[in-house]
Structures are given as C-alpha cells and as structure tokens.
Amino acid sequence: MTFQRIAVIGLGLLGGSIGLAVREHLPSASTTGYDADPATRARAGDRQLVDKVCETAADAVCEADLVVICVPVGAMGEAAAEFAAALPSGAVVSDVGSSKQSVAAALEAALPGVAVIPAHPVAGTERSGPDAGFASLFQQRWCIITPPEGADPANVAALSQFWEALGARVEVMTASHHDMVLAITSHLPHLIAYTIVGTASDLEGVTESEVIKYSAGGFRDFTRIAASDPTMWRDVFLTNKDAVLEMLQRFTEDLTALQRAIRVGDGEQLFEHFARTREIRRSIIELGQDDTRPDFGRSDHGNS
Ligand code: NAP
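Above: the input record for the complex with NAP. Below: its predicted structure, written as tokens.
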C-alpha cells in the first residue's frame, strides 16, 4: 500500500521538504498542506511546497490517507486536535518530531482510535520556515519509526515505504530507545553548542569581534548548531527531559575526567581519548553520514 493523498500540517523546513520530496519522488500522489501562520501559508503557496495550501487544518486532512504533522513537538497535540474531527476513517497519522515518547502520548490523547505511527527523520538544517525546505533533505538520511504497541504492521510497512520513496533509510525502534539515542547524538550536542556560544559571548576580556574573527578555530561549527530554531529546541529539551538529563550526567562525569587529565598533565589519557573519538568520525564518514572533505568542504580552510 502506498499513500496517495498526503496532508502536511506545518509548512516549515520539514513540512516543506516533505511536500517537495513527494512531488519529486511520488508524482502520482497529491499533497495538501496547512500552517497556523497566514504568512507561512502564503509563502508555501508561492513556493508550491504542496499542491494545495488550505485555510484550515480540517480542509487539509479531510481527504487524506496519510497526515504528517510537522510542527514543534510542544504543539503536536494542539495541531492534531484541530483536525481530529475531519480525519477520514482509516487515515494514518504520523509526525516528524525530534522526541518521540511525549509526542506519541500527545497524539494518542488528541486522536483516540486513530492509527498513529510516530516517526522522526534524522535530517535537518539550522534553518527554519517556509523558505528552508528542499526536496533532497531526506536522501540517505535515517528515518526512525516508533510504532506504539499493537500498531498494525501494514501501516508501519506503508509508512516505511513512504519514507524510503523520499530517499530515507528506515529503522524501527521503541519511542523510549529513540529518545535515549537521540539525547546523546543530537540533543546533548545542541545543548553544548548553545552553552559554548553563550559562554564565549559573555566572556570579559575577549571582544565580540575577536570571537567572530577567530571563529574558524573550532567555534564556527558550534555557532551553526547554536543558530537552530529556539522554539524547536526549547520544546525538545522540555519533552525529552529524562534522557537528556541522564546523558548530561554522564557527559559531566567524562568532562571532569578530561579536566583532571589536563590538570595533572596526563597526556597519555588525553591522547588515547582523542584517538578513540577520531575513529568515531571515520565511521560516520564511512557510513556516508557526512562530508569526507577536510573542513566539511569549505573553501577557506581555517585553523582547526
Ligand atoms: P519550522 O521550520 O519552524 O516549521 C514549523 C511550522 O509549524 C511553523 O511554520 C509553525 O508556525 C507551524 N506551526 C506551529 N504550530 C502549529 C499548529 N498548531 N498548526 C499548524 N502549524 C503550526 O520547524 P521545522 O524545523 O520544520 O520542525 C518541525 C518539526 O520537525 C519539529 O517537531 C522538529 O522537532 C522536527 N525536526 C526538525 C529538524 C530540524 O533540523 N529542524 C529535524 C528533524 C525533525 P509558527 O512559526 O507561526 O509557529
């Protein structure tokens, strides 16, 4: 079974990219879309992110066989409640939220009796809004599907096929496992980036112009991550609190160990640690999940 009438709720980076990718890879399918922001709806219409931009969420979903909710995780329940009464029977509802246990609970509460199959395409950029989306966002990226207990396997298979058609590789796991894995691979790195950029900008004795001027010394990559959407990331930390706090605790312990190695001059420990982490980078490149070129292919190779 392939979905043929896809409704996208929220027409920012993720929603816009889904609309464009469906047009490119599933040309027989039709798309409708809705966003709470009238300016976003207008811009989505100009860019033709979906075939038809609707004025209400109910209009967008009323003929859909798949609804994909692409709003910040804290707004999932509210977005679903808005179209619940208009949903055709048999439609599958999914989402793209970055945390999964809280989203599953919010969607199940808002859509009792509906086939809800949450998912998270692990693909994105630091940009947001209706101008940010592009059709190739999901190419070769993972999409994690987190079916609730008792979900119809046919719906899980259909959603997997949908994401594979858009270019993604699919993995199925529980929502709690997803939240733990993403806490360390995505959420904690964002927290660290937000912290370090804030710390640098608060430093006395180092001017803001120096922070910008010498940013190629490693800081620049943190600033890209720390430019991510504040609403999205506020919601991620509030909805994946337990897993993030657990990973933060482990991180703090490891940081303290490195701090001690520096203080006591334990070069061997530092070298061993850095050699091990370099291997992880190699594995990521081998798996095709990042650019092989030095400095991510930037033309102006700065200090590292
Ligand atoms: P985005 O570009 O800001 O788009 C979200 C859109 O949803 C905005 O236009 C927003 O309008 C709209 N919206 C908010 N509440 C709504 C509601 N109740 N009904 C309809 N529309 C509503 O955000 P995004 O980056 O696409 O992120 C969307 C989701 O994808 C989030 O759950 C995020 O966790 C997940 N995700 C993001 C990334 C990433 O890298 N960005 C990667 C993977 C997954 P307003 O601006 O007016 O609020």
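Notes for the reader.
The chain has two domains: 5-173, 177-290.
Residues 300-304 have pLDDT under 50 and may be disordered.
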